[in-house]
Design brief:
It is a single chain. This protein is an alpha+beta fold. Helices cover 19% and strands 32% of the residues. The strands form 2 sheets. Strands 3-8-4-5-6-7 form a 6-stranded antiparallel beta sheet. Strands 1-2 form a two-stranded antiparallel sheet. The radius of gyration is 13 Å and the shape is globular. The two termini are 15 Å apart. It comes from Dyadobacter endophyticus. InterPro entries: Murein_DD/LD_carboxypeptidase (IPR052062), NLP_P60_dom (IPR000064), Papain-like_cys_pep_sf (IPR038765). It holds the Pfam family NLPC_P60.
């Protein structure tokens, strides 16, 4: 969480993976790279890495969250983030690289994200 939060405010850049600009999967990749751990770079590959978390109630800090582009639709994974805090049944905070606001933390249960959420993975 500490490493991920050092990227807070970093602007979004598609394909980016440093503090000059970063995308969502690049954020995950860079955080783990700084810990000396190699993980996949692309969000759909990350969504297959590790063990799937059985239910939302089992999500823990450090888990990865994955989203599709349109609420309520099936489709390809297009967005990812790292859980930073679980504050309750309806407040799971995750850090991600927002296309409009850069790296920031949001609640999984916000109107925007809850309908797009498809799964959580526990990478390790």
């Amino acid at each position: 969480m500490q490493i991920a939060r050092t990227y807070t405010g970093t602007p979004y850049r598609s394909g980016g993976n440093d503090k000059d600009g970063i995308d969502c999967s690049g954020l995950i990749c860079q955080v783990y790279s700084e810990m000396g751990v190699k993980v996949p770079r692309i969000s759909w590959q990350q969504s297959e890495f590790g063990q799937e978390v059985g239910s939302v109630a089992e999500i823990k800090p450090g888990d990865w969250l994955f989203f599709v582009p349109e609420a309520g639709k099936e489709g390809y994974v297009s967005h990812a983030g790292i859980v930073t805090d679980v504050r309750g049944r309806d407040e799971i905070i995750f850090i991600h690289a927002s296309t409009s606001r850069g790296v920031r933390e949001d609640n999984l249960f916000s109107t925007y994200f809850k309908g797009r959420f498809v799964k959580a993975m526990r990478p390790f």
